[in-house]
Amino acid sequence: MTCQRSVGVLSMCFLCVFSALATAQSTFRGIQLDQGNNLIYEPVLDRVHPWFVDVVENFTTYTNQTFEGQIFSRNLSDTLAGTYVDGLRIGFVPPTEGLPDGPLTGTAAESVGRWMSGGSPQYTMDSAHSGSTDRTSDGSVALACINWRVTPGLGNAYLLEMGVDLAEGESATVGYFGDIGVHGNSLSLLAGPLGQLAFGVERGTGGNSTRYDWTISWWEGTTQQTDTGSVFLTTSDPVTLQLGWEDGANHRYDAWIETTAASFRIWQDTMQDPIDVFGIGFELSGTQSKITEFVAAVPEPPMSLFATGAGLLLAIFRRRRNCYSGS
């Protein structure tokens, strides 16, 4: 092959690589990342580019909405379990594994953004006004979960965000769930093995009502690991808990609290072992607190795709250099 022809072929390869990288960067599991209304900017995991929302729930009522050919309504005092989120249901992260890339169809699409049923007490829509959910009774574990199956290599980072109006003496936890079939049923504690990675805060009472004790827990093998601490907030307004997880070599997590007055990192660390995520959701400890928002988001696809592309580009440049030098 002549040098000129070689350069022409390499140039075509160069364009192909750039095209592949551009496509990979703009999609996640074959679905367009930017949907026009799903970008949020949060510094979790030191991110400067936007996160792309996959699922969002504002706990509002709705009437006669159609999901995959079925008509659903959600009214005040209705149970949350079995209903769909009221916002986005994109399906970047599928409800189960083994599904083809691209928009979900059939039963898989029917499961996207749908709260699982099971267990008592249940969460219900606020009986007074649309826009929040609370649990119906004290005294036992109460979980709310959406199927969200993260297989290895699916993506490189994930974000959970939960708004909560936290009552004195009560706690709220947001987290990534493991396999219920392995780690227990819907009555299992999110702070136990079912919670692959969980971030919870408990608010003090009386003179300590501005104190929030936090716990981050995860499992390495059969041993539960925890980081704990306390923060004092200058406002009693609702707080937003943010929990980022990096599914990469370091298995990093990053926890933040956001209020109307400030946004700050609580703790950042790495996990020795990878976690295995089958779902996402939350838990409240009592009946006086309310969840006002729940969001799950993803970034671009794994960096390994870009590393592969960069390696191909480097090989092209080296080949072109050798060609012009007469090698």
Which keywords apply here?
327 residues, disordered N terminus, 17% helix, alpha+beta, disordered C terminus, 6-stranded antiparallel beta sheet
Number of strands: 19
- How do the SSEs run, as a string of H and E? HEEEEEEHEEEEEHEEEEEEEEH
| Strand line-up of the largest beta sheet | 3-4-19-10-15-16-17
The fraction of residues assigned to DSSP E strands is 35-45%
Largest sheet: 7 strands, antiparallel
CA(first)-CA(last) distance: 13 Å
Describe the structure in your own words.
By secondary structure, the chain is α+β, with helices and mostly antiparallel strands. The protein contains four helices and 19 strands. α1 runs antiparallel to α4. The two termini are 13 Å apart. The model is unreliable at 1-24 and 303-327 (pLDDT under 50).
